[in-house]
Amino acid sequence: REFPAKGKPDPALVPFKFKFPSELPSGMRLKSVMIFDSRFCGSLGLVFTDGTRNLCLVQQPADRPILFSGLKTTTDEFCKYNVTHCRVGEYSMVAWTADTIRSVVLSNLDRGQIEATMASLR
pTM of the prediction? Predict the structure, then answer.
């Protein structure tokens, strides 16, 4: 499920200690939070935006595979989501594991901005 959010999300949303970036590019704010079914990956997704640029940070326990299963959507909802949020070719993906958390960043920020945001998580 995905819901609008402002400020740092409640730590009780997921059963692991997630990280929140202490530094974001100018104008970026937390737009929404995604919670993935704990029977699958149990991920927490944080979606940041400034209206044009986006950064999605997905975190989960490192002992679980990266899966975006467990989402209950219709084909129409899936297509609408992709039309609204995806721009193939503009996004970079970076994945890493640290401190028992596996993280994935999907973003259309430039490489330096992505790296600065990632560094603020560590």
Answer: 0.78
Strand, coil or helix: 81? helix
- Please give the span between the terminal C-alpha atoms of the chain, in angstroms, as a whole number: 27
Nearest Cα residue to 85 out of 105, 71, 106 = 106
Q: Which of 86, 33, 78, 30 is nearest to 58 (CA)?
A: 33
Give the Cα separation of 109 and 4 in Å (integer). 21
pLDDT digits (tens, 9 = 90+) for 45-83: 999 999 999 999 999 988 877 655 444 555 565 556 555
Tell me phi and psi for residue 82, to 5 degrees. -65, -40
Structure tokens given for 40: 């699958």
